[in-house]
Write a structure and sequence with these properties.
Elements: H1 3-7, E1 8-15, E2 19-24, E3 28-34, E4 37-40, E5 46-49, H2 50-56, E6 64-67, E7 70-71, E8 74-75, H3 78-92, E9 98-106, H4 112-124, E10 129-134, H5 135-142, E11 153-158, E12 163-169, E13 172-179, H6 183-198, E14 200-201, H7 204-214, E15 225-232, E16 238-244, H8 245-268, H9 272-281, E17 283-286, H10 295-303, E18 307-309, H11 316-326, H12 328-331
Parallel strand pairs: 1-9, 9-10, 11-17, 17-18
Antiparallel strand pairs: 1-2, 2-3, 4-5, 4-6, 7-8, 11-12, 12-13, 14-15, 15-16
């Protein structure tokens, strides 16, 4: 080990559409911030990232643009995403001279071009060695499943941009579905609901807050109401209205149904031996979407299988990615093999 190796750091990254989480080897999770960037429209110079940029969202003037360079789990704006990755790594590796290795978790439905874009971004951000890992595999490792065992495990990881459904056995993905319907789609459904039913324009942050407060997939024991502030589309002035969790559940129903139907399709294509394992072990829910009230009950009702929400589902992917960077040899077989382009 050379002198510079002592000054370098190994990091694992869950590069999500909604949030980016970074795990530093030997330190644990060192960063958990929104995947949002504020930059100068003319020079493209980054002004703020993460929480600082989120605070500017919807409040910026014409010289500043606040955007999310990740869309549907993949890089939409290459230049800005690279700047964001670089800035996040720098923030997470204070005191380190350089980044030696990076493991990045990516959706299982990405194309070869999208994989290369993530790999290139991490390399341009200074990493000497880059490994990629599929999100459901990372989530399974993160929640303590023995992915190398000859047994079937079903993981549903619902993030901001994608819902990842995978059957894992013998350190590989036997069967998987990746749909670009997840947390962002739910927020969008809530925004459209207010526009259509209340002539009220609400922002993305407000929609997300409503989803977290009163969003549900099944009737609640006690239905709740919430005050919502937005702009009246008719009069153009600020307005407050009151909505119930019943209305929000109706607004989210189409998105939730799409996720449920995809889960059922994945189960239909699962080999019988693995189906028997899933019947015994149940389905594991991870990602921020797993926190939607009653989603586990809805899946249980529709699939007739046990459904468990992982402990701290938001960090499952980064914890698994972190375990893989701490034990590269053990998890070498779960990394995505690099193709020669």
């Amino acid at each position: 080990m050379g002198f510079l190796d002592f000054l370098s750091i190994d990091v694992a990254m869950d590069l999500g559409t909604a949030n980016t989480l970074i795990f530093a080897k030997g330190k644990g999770i060192v960063l958990n911030e929104p995947s949002i960037v504020a930059f100068d429209r003319n020079t493209k110079k980054i002004i703020a990232i993460g929480n600082e940029a989120k605070a500017m969202q919807g409040r910026e003037h014409k010289e500043i643009r606040v955007s999310r360079p990740m869309r549907d789990g993949v890089i939409a704006d290459f230049e800005i995403a690279e700047g964001m990755i670089r800035a996040f790594i720098k923030k997470a590796s204070e005191g380190a001279f350089s980044t030696r290795r990076i493991v990045v978790a990516i959706p299982s439905g990405v194309t070869e071009v999208e994989k290369r874009a993530v790999r290139d971004s991490a390399e341009h951000a200074g990493a000497k060695e880059v490994h990629l890992l599929y999100e459901p595999m990372a989530a399974a490792i993160g929640i303590g499943i023995d992915v190398e065992a000859a047994a079937g495990n079903m993981i549903i990881d619902i993030g901001g941009g994608t819902t990842e459904i995978a059957i894992i056995s013998l350190a590989g993905i036997v069967n998987q579905e990746s749909i670009r319907v997840a947390g962002d789609e739910m927020n969008n459904a809530i925004m459209q609901f207010f526009k259509k039913n209340y002539n009220l324009l609400v922002g993305e942050r407000t929609a997300e807050s409503i989803k977290c407060q009163v969003g549900s997939a099944m009737p609640l024991k006690e239905e709740i109401t919430v005050q919502v502030k937005g702009r009246d589309l008719v009069g153009g002035i600020p307005k407050t209205t009151e909505v119930s969790s019943v209305e929000i559940r109706d607004a989210l129903n189409e998105t939730v149904t799409q996720i449920v139907e995809t889960v059922k399709q994945t189960l239909e294509r699962t080999p019988p031996e693995l189906s028997a394992d899933i019947l015994d072990r149940g389905i594991m829910l991870t990602g921020g979407g797993a926190l939607l009230k009653g989603l586990d009950e809805r899946l249980k009702m529709e699939t007739k299988l046990p459904v468990h929400v992982a402990e701290d589902p938001l960090t499952a992917v980064v914890r698994g990615t972190g375990k893989s960077i701490e034990n590269l040899n053990k998890y070498a077989k779960v990394f995505i093999r690099k193709r020669s382009y």
